[in-house]
Amino acid sequence: MARIRWIAEDSATGPIADAYREWQDANPGRPVIPAILKCFSLRPDFFRDVVAFSDRLHFSEGHLTRRIKEMIATYVSALNQCPY
Fold first, then answer.
1. 28-72 confidence digits (pLDDT tens)
2. Which of 3, 19, 23, 35 has the most CB atoms in a 10 Å sphere around its CB?
3. For the ranges 4-13, 18-27, 42-51, 58-67, which has the lowest average pLDDT?
4. More confident: 2 or 10
5. Is 38 exposed, middle or buried (0-12, 13-18, 19+ CB in 10 A)?
6. Residue 52, SS3?
7. Cα 1 to chain center, whole Å?
């Protein structure tokens, strides 16, 4: 059970519904918003900031490829027993 209150996709209205729809449009085939992002659902403006920052930092090519970055993130999450 999450300790942080968030807005589920089926309960989202207004700005957070728009933000969820933008994320889903950018991530076709992923109908569920990741829980780690839903933690920011009470602040749709911050949700968008986190998504933009994450896209720029984690999901872009740089010194490391996206694949390597995701492998490192998955490994660290497993070490920390983090479900994300």
1. 988 899 988 999 999 999 999 999 998 888 878 889 988 898 899
2. 19
3. 58-67
4. 10
5. buried
6. helix
7. 18
Q: Assign residue 81 a region: left if phi > 0, alpha if psi is -120 to 50, beta otherwise?
A: left
Residue 63 CA to residue 23 CA, distance in Å, equals: 25
Q: Which two tokens stand for residue 12?
A: 């989202």
- pTM score: 0.77
Query: DSSP states of 20-64 as a string?
Result: HHHHHHHSTT--SPPHHHHTTTT-HHHHHHHHHHHHHHTSS-SSS
The answer to whether 39 and 73 are in contact (CB under 8 A) is: no
